[in-house]
Amino acid sequence: SASANRVIIQTDIGRGTINPNIYGHFAEHLGRCIYEGFWVGEDSPIPNTKGIRNDVVEALRKLNIPVLRWPGGCFADEYHWKDGIGPREQRKEMINTHWGGVVENNHFGTHEFLLLCETLGCEPYISGNVGSGTVQEMSEWVEYMTFEGVSPMSKLRKENGREEPWALKYFGVGNENWGCGGNMRPEYYADLYRQYQTYVRNYGENKIYKIACGPNSDDYNWMEVVMREAGRYMDAISLHYYTVPGTWKEKGSATEFTAEDWFVTMKKTLHMDELLTKHKAIMDRHDPDKRVALIVDEWGTWFDVEPGTNPGFLYQQNTMRDALVAGLNLHLFHNHNDRVQMANIAQTVNVLQSVILTEGAKMVLTPTYHVFDMYKVHQGAERLETHGTFASYAQGGEALEQVSVSASRDAQGRIHISLCNLDPGSEAKVELDLRGLAGGYAVSGTVLASSGMQDHNSFDEPDKVAPQAYHGAEKNEGGLTAVLPPMSLVVLELREE
Ligand code: AHR
């Protein structure tokens, strides 16, 4: 029934910090993500600073983007970093064999990426090449970026115009080495991981946080073997899981879908909860002190490409459905914050579940962008104990809980409660029982909603789906009653007064 969502929020019981890096991003040399999306080159008529688009940087800075993963993805295990340094006109032209067979001119390389991160004010997270690279190549890359003293690689860096080393924390030792990164068995990868990471050195004050390649979705054996054999040599292990409503062959359209497809998309997204729970249980056996973090460095929706676009470019539109997928996943990452210390949505611009789409000089912010914007208040905040009983959202004999909720308290003492109504057909009435509040408080809120399931922002209609002020919450004795429109996300802010 419409009144069956009851949520208790213990405002006085903290459950650990929500690591800001859970709001991280991923950008690969794939389709129009790096080229066109971030990099237009210094001579472009599109407003840029040293070749990097100003509009995209400004939009991402507004999200407080904490960390950006690069250069892949599958591209990482084919990437040879020395091809991407030195005078641009002398850099190698080659084919991006994995993604669309287009020319890669290597104009965006190490210097450009680290400049991008400095401009965004975010941490770089670099994925090294295990699948087709050497131990020496990986070791020299880290030396090139982070060594201050006298060495062949620091000399080369200085010749290329960068005197000071960069600070680099996050470094991945391979990507999807069970697949595009070398089709390895976990036993073999675990040994290679141990070998490669030995030569990923800490120079001076720079301390690298080493991330091992973890499993594909429910490959629990991969997690078991890699944790058992190599867990003690890593700071974190990754997990990749995408929301694919159909099959890998026919994934389904991003914009043309039914109420059944919507339901399946929500259900498959919520599968992340089971994956995190089970992978964490394996990690707990090998690392009971939770020293090693779990990093979901690829997640998001994966649909069929937009009709008429290069199938290797993975360009898809982004609707209200994507917004809900983002909200649900972010809540799950919050809830698993005893292990989940980073997550990187795939992929920032023009690829898969992007927050930004571009077309020439034009830029559109997707519904997913608005979720990251509304939810940024959770970054670095203390998660609050929350539990509830929920109405059911039923479809074709199956049911999910209608509402998902997460709450946190920030450094200024403000409480933020984010709520998702998954149900495209009915509004959700939520009784919020706020426990442990000392005094009175003022409530305000923001809502992201739209009347159609398939509503999205296009270059003709860029603001069709946009956040609005929310007026659906009413105070009562024990807390609040909030009415959520069908298929919507609401973030409430409570300020003590
Ligand atoms: O994000 C697209 C691709 O998905 C990545 O390159 C790869 O790691 C994964 O299979």
TrEMBL record:
Q: Name one GO biological process term.
A: L-arabinose metabolic process
Could you tell me the superkingdom of the organism this chain comes from?
Answer: Bacteria
Q: Which GO terms describe its molecular function?
A: alpha-L-arabinofuranosidase activity
Catalytic reactions on record: Hydrolysis of terminal non-reducing alpha-L-arabinofuranoside residues in alpha-L-arabinosides
The organism is Paenibacillus mucilaginosus 3016
Functional pathway: Glycan metabolism
Task: Pinpoint the Alpha-L-arabinofuranosidase C-terminal domain residues.
Answer: 297-488
Q: Which Gene3D superfamilies did the record assign?
A: Glycosidases, Golgi alpha-mannosidase II
The name this protein carries in UniProt is non-reducing end alpha-L-arabinofuranosidase
Enumerate the UniProt keywords alphabetically. Carbohydrate metabolism, Glycosidase, Hydrolase
The record's similarity note reads: Belongs to the glycosyl hydrolase 51 family.
Subunit and interaction comment: Homohexamer; trimer of dimers.
Question: Where are the annotated coiled coils located?
Answer: none
Provide the E.C. number(s) assigned to this enzyme. Answer: 3.2.1.55
| Pfam families on file | Alpha-L-AF_C, ASD1_dom
